Amino acid sequence: VPELASRQHIKTIDYVVAESLTQAGVSLEDIDLFAVTQGPGLIGSLLVGLAFAKGLAYYFKKPLLGVDHLEAHIEAPFLENERIEFPVLALLVSGGHTSLYFLEKPLSYQLLGKTRDDAAGECLDKVAKFLQLGYPGGPVIERLARGGDSSRFHFSLPRMKTAGYDFSFSGLKTAALKIIRENGLNASHPLLRDFLASFEETVARALLENVHKALEEFRPASLILCGGVARNTRLRTRFSELAAGYGLPSFVPSPRLCTDNAGMVGALAWKKYQAAPVSGTDLDLDAYPR
């Protein structure tokens, strides 16, 4: 619920910042640059972060840099692998976004395609919710799908009718709900494990189909998988297999860096600041929603 999320941000932001400084062993006076997520995201939560960051930057007379949340996810693998070779093809998969990017060089983001409807993570969440398995759906589905027969249920791969690299998962979600109803599947059904394994496998295949097409056209030197859904073991495995088939290195953040985190935001901000230093506090910095 967006309003509850923004209220929770207001409630905890002081503590989170203070605890982060304590763990890092620094004070606010030691900070050279303040970074803040501008979007995309829930507007209420973004505004809380922006207001807090503006206040700190203004008080301490330090520069403030706004960061795109999706670009920050692409930065996450660089926190653990500084020598990723460019050009890079990056697949970003989360609860709210599914996008494919090409980076000819650092900090150059060419959006090749994005979801036209449901994101992959959203599709997983909705199927899990329909089965009353809990939230977030991705981790629950992954756990319950272990050992299941991924060939037991057949799903057609969702494909766009137009050329390009956009994604669509609404049709796959509808097909999954139809199979659930037709087979009377529920949390205790003996075929649930096979169904979830089949569904999870199809989501992974649908994501990687566009990656395969882009590999043929753009010929990158490296592949990146990032975003919250990149925690999924099956997707990570299929992604590395695809990269190996092309003789390319693949880079996926450790699970703790796949989900939203401040480390990737700060790292990207510092990289941008080094490339093009800013001075002063931009109090006109604004949020942009999804």
Short description:
This protein has ten helices and seven strands.
Structure overview:
The chain is built from ten helices and seven strands. With 290 residues, it is of the alpha/beta class. The protein is globular.
Task: Chart the SSEs and their pairings.
Elements: H1 2-24, E1 34-39, H2 43-60, E2 64-68, H3 69-75, E3 88-93, E4 98-103, E5 110-114, H4 120-130, H5 137-145, H6 170-183, H7 192-218, E6 222-226, H8 233-245, E7 250-251, H9 255-258, H10 262-275
Parallel strand pairs: 1-2, 3-6, 6-7
Antiparallel strand pairs: 3-4, 4-5
- The strand count comes to 7
Structural domain count: 2
Unreliable segments of 5+ consecutive residues = none
CATH architecture title of the largest domain:
2-Layer Sandwich
Helix content: 40-55%
The CATH superfamily of the largest domain is: ATPase, nucleotide binding domain
Discrete helix count: 10
What kind of sheet is the major sheet?
Answer: 5 strands, mixed
What structural category do the secondary elements indicate? alpha/beta
The side-by-side strand order for the widest beta sheet comes to 5-4-3-6-7
Q: What's the CATH first level of the largest domain?
A: Alpha Beta
The chain-level mean pLDDT equals: 95
In the CATH hierarchy, the third-tier topology of the largest domain is known as: Nucleotidyltransferase, domain 5
Which radius of gyration do the C-alpha atoms yield? 20 Å
Q: Strand portion, in percent? A: 5-15%
N-to-C series of helices and strands: HEHEHEEEHHHHEHEHH
From the N-terminal CA to the C-terminal CA, the straight-line distance is 15 Å
Gross geometry: globular
